[in-house]
Amino acid sequence: MPYDLLIAPFAEFGFLRRALVGCLVLSVAAPPLGVFLMLRRMSLTADVLAHGILPGVAAGFILAGLSVTAMSLGGLVAGLAVTLGAGALSRATGGREDSALAALYLVALALGVTMVSASAGSVELTHLLFGSVLGVDDPALLMMAGVATLTLLALSLAWRPLVLECFDPSFAAAEGARGGAWHMLFMALVVLNVLAAFQAMGTMMAVGLMMLPAVASRHWARGVGGMAYAASLVAILSSVTGILVSYHLDVPTGPAVVLSAGAAWIVSVLAGPVDGVLARLFRRRHLAG
Amino acid sequence: MKGSPGMSDAIRLHGVTLSHDRHPAVHHLSGAFEAGSLTAIVGPNGAGKTTLLRAIAGLHPVDEGRIECPAGRIALLPQMSALDRSFPISCLDVAMLGHWRRLGAFRSVAPAGRAEAEAALEAVGLAGFARRPVGSLSAGQFQRLLFARLLVQDAPVILLDEPFNAVDTRTAADLLRLVREWHGQGRTVVAVLHDLELVRREFPETLLLARDPVAWGGTEAALAASNRLRARMMAEGWDASAGACGRAA
């Protein structure tokens, strides 16, 4: 019975195995980035980026059809433009960065939808907006795995400056730590991971596996490292659960994975040992002495 | 006012003007903090005290003039409210950030460096807190932790921005003892403070700032009633729609 529920679908269907590999690859690299975004109070930035890449992806799509390379390159250009543009806009207008980001992503989303609709039908538009986890092909899988590998390498090298830049950017600047350069590297990684997730989840849900596990991880660990591991673990469990649920209950896979991550977040808020609701209600007795 | 810059200066200011959005925060300030001096910076709110410290630490652009620091490395204690006190990082890790200049992004922490950080935690009264997350600290304990990081930094020049704000009196007394020790070791210490009684008691030199420097020198003379009155009038009388400054740099 457990075999039928948990293993058989993957043993039987190649497209489910590919979906599983794709989601697991995303689960390893994106959630730690989400943890850093959350700590920098930039939880919404990833979502903005996911919408912001759409015009670039659409341009790639118009030129070369549903080609991973063309859409990724277009998305990369658009993502970096949104990242740099939001920073420059907020400096130039003296406004707050979040309002510049909101304006940019609304324009980008509308532009992207217009471009795709003008050159293709609603099937392609749905594909770009919501993705198809069950339809990831070899080039998409390779791209996702490549991004994950690069991300893990870069994170392991840049861990210390990234933590410092999050915690005390003034100190980083005074000590000559080049916080700005590390932050740019970090944002480039976020753009790449949003693009990788876009291959499977589409533009609307690309950051589901990045941010929900990250937000949930806050309730499982007290250090940045522990939170990164917890976030990846939550993402992995959500991926497996989501794919199985979507198979057995016949619901769309992308939303099922994101909903599973959402459920994991709710469980974390309630039952997590760090600032969880239950942990607050039933405080352990304090240590003697 | 301070005399002309000499050889034994830790920090020299030459006609320094700093601004936010073209509105001057510090206006044509010249002078020097002598090596080994212990100076308080006082003045009304918005007088440019924090901006001046940040500029000396290289964190704020200098519009006009120049800042020299012959003494070398500078350590800055920021205002506590500038930091996220719920950040998931341990006390020992924060103290070890003080090693950044020696270790940079990649070098590993030697056992000696770790021992230094632990000793610093002990010196500020946080022995046994090494593994505690900073989120569990009170405001006073967090300020002690930032002082531990200053100890690890071991810099010849130390800038303190409102170091005793929002901390309990015992913590303030303990931290003040560290400041006296630094002074005794010949380090140059500059602190932004509000408590004039404390300044008179502990700080031999004072810079009274109200955008324009009002007085700089021995504390008693600098804090004379006439100077303080002048500072208040300058702070209140500043016209927000003033034209561009015509004075030469």
Automatic annotation (TrEMBL), chain A:
Belongs to the ABC-3 integral membrane protein family. The keyword Transmembrane applies. The lineage of its organism: Bacteria, Pseudomonadati, Pseudomonadota, Alphaproteobacteria, Acetobacterales. One of its GO terms (cellular component) is ATP-binding cassette (ABC) transporter complex. It is a multi-pass membrane protein. InterPro entries: ABC_BtuC-like (IPR037294), ABC_TroCD (IPR001626). This is Zinc/manganese transport system permease protein. Pfam families: ABC-3. Keywords: Membrane, Transmembrane, Transmembrane helix, Transport. It comes from Muricoccus pecuniae. One of its GO terms (biological process) is transmembrane transport. The chain crosses the membrane at residues 19-39, 46-64, 70-89, 101-120, 140-159, 180-198, 228-249, 255-278. It is found in: Cell membrane; Membrane. Coiled coil: none annotated. Its main location: membrane.
